[in-house]
Amino acid sequence: VSTRIVLILDAVALLGTWVLSGTDAFPAFLAALVVGAAAFAASIGSSADDLFRLHVAASFAIGIAFMRELSWAVPSYAVLGLLAWKGRERTIPYLAAAAAAVTGVLWLEREGGTGALLLLLAGLAGTFLVASREALRNSRFGFPTGMAFVLVLLVAASSLTLRIEAWFPQGFPLHAASTLGLLLLALGAAGTLTSTRIPTFLTGLALARGALAFLALPGGASGRAPALLLLAASGVSLLLLAAALNGLETLADVSKLRSVARRQVLTVGALTAGSFPPFPGFFALLPLSSAISDRGLTGPLVVGATLLFLLALGSMRLVFRAWETSGERTITGRIGIAAIALAMAAALGFSLLPSALVEWARAAALSVL
Amino acid sequence: MPWPPAFPILSALLWTPALGAIASLFPREGSHGRGRTVALGFAALALLFAIAAAAMPESGRELHRYIPGLGFSYELRLDSFGSIAVVWIALLALLAILSGETGESDRSTTCLVLTTETSLLGLVTAGDSVLFLGFYGSGALAMTLLVGEAARRRFFFFQSLGVALAFVYVAATYHMVWTQTGFPSSEIARVSSLVVFPDERERLFLLGASVLIFAAPLFPFVSSLESAMSASSASARWMLGAGWILSAPLFFMRMVWSVTPLSGGATFLFILAGLSPLYSGLVQSRRFQAPGTFLLAAAPAIVSLGVLSFSRAGVLAMAVVGAMLALWKAGPENARAGKLPRLVPAAAFLVTSWFVLEPLARSSPTVVLLAAIGSLVLAIQLLRSLPPLTTKRTFVLLALLLFWAFTLSHPSGLGSPAVTEAPFSAEEEE
Description:
The complex is a heterodimer.
Chain A: H1 2-20, H2 25-44, H3 48-66, H4 70-82, H5 91-110, H6 114-136, H7 143-167, H8 174-194, H9 198-216, H10 220-245, H11 260-273, H12 285-294, H13 298-322, H14 337-352, H15 354-366
Helix pairs in contact in A: 1-2, 2-3, 2-7, 2-10, 2-15, 3-4, 3-7, 4-5, 4-6, 4-7, 5-6, 6-7, 6-8, 6-9, 7-9, 7-10, 8-9, 8-13, 9-10, 10-11, 10-12, 10-14, 10-15, 11-13
Chain B: H1 9-23, H2 32-55, E1 61-67, E2 72-77, H3 80-98, H4 107-125, H5 129-146, H6 152-181, H7 188-191, H8 198-215, H9 222-230, H10 235-244, H11 247-256, H12 265-287, H13 293-308, H14 312-330, H15 340-357, H16 365-385, H17 391-408, H18 426-429
Antiparallel strand pairs in B: 1-2
Helix pairs in contact in B: 1-2, 1-4, 2-3, 2-4, 3-4, 3-10, 3-14, 4-5, 4-10, 5-6, 5-10, 6-8, 6-9, 8-11, 8-12, 9-13, 10-14, 11-13, 12-13, 12-16, 13-14, 13-15, 14-15, 14-17, 15-16, 15-17
């Protein structure tokens, strides 16, 4: 009963984001992603405690999307990350990264300058890195809920970074931001290529997709709408993967999946994560790369394309394992109607109605300021 | 708007196999043959549409705005080369489903064959580079899942590298169109009207050539295609493999030639393409396990030379030879068959190679010499290693050859140079 009430409230919230999209398109776009992720986790099945934590985190993220004061938004983001903790490990690196972000904001408000912006961006990236690792660690939440946490963090971090770039265009460290994005993308791609455990694999994918928000920053105003489209595609792919991989421990387990629908959902999720054409969101890379080229950052763009290719190879590891013909398929768990519906909605939404999505993303990008 | 509206024959042609792929999945597990029958019906319907589209001159173009904000459109076009290519592709797919033995023609294989058909038809007809990329990616994935499991990862590596490089090329031209015209557009026709400086042209050519080298693939990567086909026992996979050989050359024809007709990097590409058949012929006994795989491994090089020699007949030639080889592979060995059927593939290979190499003889004699020696060695290997074909399949093979000969004399001008009449040119747009 409680799950049904939560889902009804989520549906009402989604309706609210649609109503708000006419006036406050940017926060409405991000809120729709956050509420969608929370509703998806609720429909897959989570404990009441986990759902409560997730929805509190979602409220924080929506609040951050609406905030126009960095001095409030960044500490809220640091608190939001703490909701992902169910153990006591790795709190020191998280607190250090959060402290760096808060120090960056304070420094920015007192003196301004590129150094402060850089410290702030590094702090945001660090908190996302550690908190997303913690949310997916050892299946404490179950992958769908853990991944919903990661998405909430990702949306909050992306809204902050896009606003920072929009508010400080003069002193914004373009090269440093793209280098930071490339580092995160390299780390994520390496994780997907080498990991044998599912939590590490998913963390790598989430990190790599999160890095796209940093890579998009040098694109400026023209790069914001494609960045939001990529964020939406990332959300879809990570949630689908989390649902399809739920309950598995290692990548080898993927070859034991029996359900064809589950393997199909897994394939859609993995190929979307690699931005492989024609899967959702691949077309957003074209205007994004054009916007970055306009700023003369061809070098980072080429490196980024190479790393995305490696990410596609890494995500294909799942697809190859899912469609292996040798060996016995002993894992009988099904995928659930919510994941199939999300996969179909994403495929149809991005292929049949992309124009409406692009227009909403453009309106959101224009209202960042 | 005219009423009744014109029948969208290109869309019907393109999406019929995709619908068939979905429909073939519906019959239950036990009703094994029903899915194949459904697939056969859709493949036959697609062939009818292809013939109708090739025969109707007014079936030339369909245009719908897809994402106006980003300049992407759903645009399908059929030029004279495409009108023949679509018939060939539909024929290959139908033969691929027909030639599947029991056990091979399971639902997933049939579904993938039809998905690959849609992708190949999309590559031929796409008038928008984003649409082209979408079909290129879906085709590469479907082919990856079709080829043998042992070689799947290697095959995907090279194909996805080709897709990634094609993506970078499209991104570069998209950016150039945006900056030069002031609005975004991914129409292929606009690419040909770009103003490109010599250094940019050289870079773009090398980028496009890299797609051809990795995805076709050319020497020294031919073994990736060879290993993929060696690991495939199903003739359906061979048949589609023969069709997929066209994908990277199609990218080169549609997207690269229109920007940069000839460049300094072309010599490098010529040499690689010339070396590929020679390499395939010389190393076949040591490297290539399945008889005949060396020919399929050499086919992309001949197709690429066909592109470089502006010969449309050459572009299709090796797909024809690949189809014949696949047909031969599907047939059971027949000890009573004479030596004549064995001669047919070798002779066909030499004839098609002649069509490709002859136009190049004056401009690049060294490359032609390399490729000619390679072709001769390959023909000898064919005679030595292929077992004889059954009489029935020999007739089908001869019918395919006759159809190819017919396409040479087709009024659409398939035998004429490929790029003098630039496909999807700006003039055509006007």
